[in-house]
Amino acid sequence: MKKLLAALLAGGLMIIPAAHAQDKEGEAASPSPQAAAPAPSESEVTSNVAGDEAAAEEGEHETPHYPLKRPAELAWTFAGPFGHWDLQQLQRGYKVYKEVCAACHSMELVAFRNLEALGYSEDQVKAIAGDYTVTDGPNGDGDMFERPAIPSDHFPSPFANPEAAAAANNGAAPPDLSLIAKARAVERGFPRFVFDTVTQYQEAGPDYIHALLTGYGQNPPPGTVIQPGTHFNPYFIGGPALAMPPPLSADAVTYDDGTPGTVDQYARDVSSFLMWAAEPHLVERKATGFVVMLYLLIFAALVYLVKKRVWANTPH
Question: For the whole model, what pTM was predicted?
Fold first, then answer.
């Protein structure tokens, strides 16, 4: 055992000087970084300067964030904890949808009978549904057939299928508008989204729809490339331009209540209607939430008072 330990110790002492010698040889063979690096030539300096200029130019023309403009926050009757629907506005918005938007956009998650919530009577809803034709079946012979719509039917699509919708609109099918007011919105960023919890701001969808519908006709910023067949809109969330042409124009829809037919009014009314379509029970939800919060506050106060009463005579 002693001989084995002596042999191992001797071998270790021999390895250490050898390794130290190899390190010295490596240091002598490798020149210092200052001596190894040759002076840059004039062509290399020129190329580096050109590269820096190209990088700076690329930074100036980097991909912008969309939308180019943020939608303005508008005043809506359904905003806030005590918001409510303006039934006259919802009826005007439905008329704008029916006469303008329904030519391209479906609303397949909304049934005709839901329109009674807008103040229409049962007979009026039946008359509205009767203006539409839906495909039903199969019949006894196994064939599909068409019939007038009834209140339990949903709003039909203007196209037979998504492929037909895309073929008629330059390859992109128009989106369904049933939930568009909840599905489209612009991120508000920090710290605004923190205060939205307190102010209960939930109208980003209608604000975006209104801004998009009224944002046509502006000049694009210098350097913005607009593809043929598209229309510049600084409020579009998907790019600088979209394929949909301006859908609204002054006096395009005649309101039954005499409200002026301006583009801004049309956009406000149809945005409100689409918000109702996306969340028809919004008012009931807010009322229920207010009662629940009031109950929790009263319950918390009672718990605190009971706790003080129970522990009043207990020494701390």
Answer: 0.77
